[in-house]
Amino acid sequence: MKQLIYIIFIILIGCNNSKTDFTADLNTQDGYGIFRPGNVILWPSQDSLNYRNVPKDINEYVVRSLPLQADQYFWNKYVAKEIGKDQFEKISKHYNIDTTTLSNKYIDCEVLILIGTQQSKRIIIVDSDNDGDFGDEKIFEYEYPLNNQKQKEIQSALPQVLTQYEYFENNRVKTKEIKIKPSPYKGSLGLTFNTENQIEKKYYLFASFPEFKKGNINLNGQDLEIFVSNGFSRVNYPNGEVSLFLASNIDSLPSELKGDIPYQIGDVFNVKGHDYLIDSITNWGDRLFIKYVGLNSKSTGINEGFYIPKFKAKRLDNSIFELEHYPNNYILLDFWGTWCNPCIKLIPELKQINSEFSKDKFVLVSVAFDNDPKKVSNFISKENMNWEHIFVNQNKQDRNSLIEKLKVTSFPTTILIAPDGKIIARDKTMDELREILKNAL
Fold first, then answer.
1. What span, in angstroms and rounded, lies between the C-alpha atoms of 164 and 224?
2. What pLDDT digit, counting tens, does each position of 334-373 carry?
3. Is the peptide bond before 145 cis (omega within 30 degrees of 0)?
4. Cα gap 157→181, rounded to integer Å
């Protein structure tokens, strides 16, 4: 009897633990990990930049500013009073603030980067100690020009520079270090600078912060690894700009490079029949907060193996489309647009697959992401696309649209849904979809 009571107690404790909120501690990792690398463009500055001691043997150059934390300090007499005399004088001296006026002032927290030519070599200098002095910094040489393929191959080997900067937090000036990877390569990106300065027009400069976050957590007895990215184009982790993966099998990690779609803050994930909300992350990305939502035997998601989130969508005629209207059908969602050439090339294959399977078991639904429903209707009539059609206005931001709910970021995208609502294929070829449907039906 005592043994039975003890077993029941252990089970109850396990259930209680599964229904609590969690905090995951995250640590900094080098590189881009399982995320797609990102960067930021350094545009020609509209303001004069203060710097000195550019090496004399550099033939020509431009200096660009890489923002770290924009509008970091709001400077006025109330701030001066609150932070104290020592801090006030330190900040004023560092940023050359005129202390006689104490007028309101924004100060951008930034790093200066020089790009130019030295003896026919393309060179970059990062002001790593943030003092405006290029004379004491290392000069990095780059092969230039290179074709697009060579640029891709060399990206991972580009040098990183450990950079120090000061920022303002909790009424104190603090120091932080961040790794910066500068690059002169724009690849196939079509980019022009709106400036009359011919030297500025010659030099393209990009930079990324090659660090991500990683942590571990145990939910319902399942160990999960957490990977978090801020897009590599900023130093902090704003909640609206964070991507993350959860992995239970370290031998088979998800990856953006393989087409896997990361979670965002506000998404819900499921572990062993329990739903959890990815609630928020701290500014520096060192802690992730997860809230317990409740029991859910059918875990919803946007990748294969998950049940598709419930949705309502408007057809082109403004009537409402719901999956519940087709309870016994396999449904193929095709995301496209009249502006998308690969989507248009796919239409003959869609016609073929639509004609191959019985209408009482298979439904094809095209979701047009476009700006003019009349234009889409005319196109559909012209091409004789005789199946279901949904319209999503690309000029209106709507978090509840199918594009947002299913995180469709490339076109065309296809998603095949089984009668029970489970996603059984995403971004498969038409031949692969045809084979899946033949086996299923």
1. 33
2. 999 999 999 999 999 999 999 999 888 999 999 999 999 9
3. yes
4. 10
